[in-house]
Task: structure prediction
Amino acid sequence: MRLILLGPPGAGKGTQALRLVGRHGIPQLSTGDMLRAAVQAGTEVGKRAKAVMDAGELVSDAIVNAIVAERIDQADCANGFILDGYPRTLVQADAVEEMLSDRGLELDAVIEFVVDDKALVGRIVKRAEEAKAAGLPVRKDDSPAVFEERLREYYKKTSPLIGYYYAKGKLRGVDGMADIDAVTQQIEAVLRATTRQVGQAAG
Ligand code: AMP
Result:
C-alpha cells in the first residue's frame, strides 16, 4: 500500500501515520523528520535546510526529492509506505509519479486532512505547551509566527495538490478536526474501499 497524507501543518498527519505504521506494518516516510535528522547530524543537506526550516519555508524540491527517492529503495519500503509531509509542491508531486512509474509501482490513495486553519494555530500552540511541560524539546518552527508562515506556504504551494490528485481520482478526504480515533476510523474506511476497488479491478 502506498499512501500520501496531505494537509496543512498541525492537521494530525504524523499522529495518524504512526497509527498506520502499527496497523499495516509499512513505514512512515516523513520528510520533516528526515530533514530534522539531517540538521541534527550536521550533514551537508542539514546545513542547507536549517535556516529555511527555521523560517517556516519549504526546502528545495531537489533536496527533498533526492531524499525520498533514496529512501523508497530501502528494504522496509518493499510492501509500501506512507508519505507524510511529502509531496508539498507540484514539482514534488510530479517527482513522485516518476519515482513510482520508474519502479512499476502505483499510488493507492491520497488522504486529505480537511481542517479549519484557525483551529490549527490553537492546536500547534497546545502541542508546543505539552512538549514543554513533558520536558521535551519544542520545535522552533512551532512558534505562532513561524507556524503562520508554514500555513501560508501550505496554501500557496501545497494546496494545489488537492486538485492535482482529485483529477487523478486518488483524493480521499477525512475530517481532520474530528478526534484522533474518529480520524483513524475514517482513514481505515478509505483504505478498505481502496483495497476493494483494487481487488475489483484485478478480478
Ligand atoms: P514537517 O515536520 O512536515 O512540518 O516539516 C517541517 C519543515 O521541514 C517544513 O516547514 C519545511 O521547512 C521542511 N519540509 C518538510 N517536508 C518538506 C517537503 N516535502 N518539501 C519542502 N520542505 C519540507
Q: What stands out?
A: Residues 27 and 77 are 7 Å apart (CA to CA).
